[in-house]
Every structure is written in structure tokens, then in C-alpha cells.
Design brief:
Helix content: 10-25%
Mean pLDDT: 83
Strand content: over 45%
Number of helices: 1
Structural class: alpha+beta
Distance between the termini: 32 Å
Length: 64
């Protein structure tokens, strides 16, 4: 199976501001909805509607 798709943001300005600051961390988001479109030949396109919640700072690697 082959998948493609994308993300649409509920609050695109908040995500753009993150990109301008170029932070590092874990992006926390909420998936509000998703839509799957079958394209045929075991190919699918999935689109997610997401809301940005927060950016958690990087934690040091523990080696586990």
C-alpha cells in the first residue's frame, strides 16, 4: 500500500511562528479529524486537520 497526504492546521499562525523561531522539541498536536481517499491500486491519500497545542523542550537522551 502507498500513502500520501498532508496536514491542515486549525491555527496556522501558531505553527508559522514556530517555524520562524526554529525551535527544537516535541510538537504536541491534536488531530481534530481525518479523511482517507482511496486512489485505487492500493494507494490512499490521508488528510489530517490538526490543532497545535504546545512544543515540549527536548530532553537529554537517556540511552534507553
Amino acid at each position: 500500500m502507498h500513502y500520501g497526504g498532508g496536514i491542515e492546521w486549525v491555527d496556522p499562525q501558531a505553527v508559522r511562528e514556530l517555524g520562524q523561531r526554529n525551535p527544537r522539541g516535541t510538537l504536541v498536536l491534536e488531530v481534530r479529524s481525518w479523511e482517507t481517499e482511496e486512489l485505487g491500486d492500493n494507494r490512499y491519500r490521508i488528510f489530517y486537520l490538526c490543532a497545535f497545542l504546545s512544543l515540549e523542550p527536548c530532553r537529554p537522551c537517556t540511552g534507553n
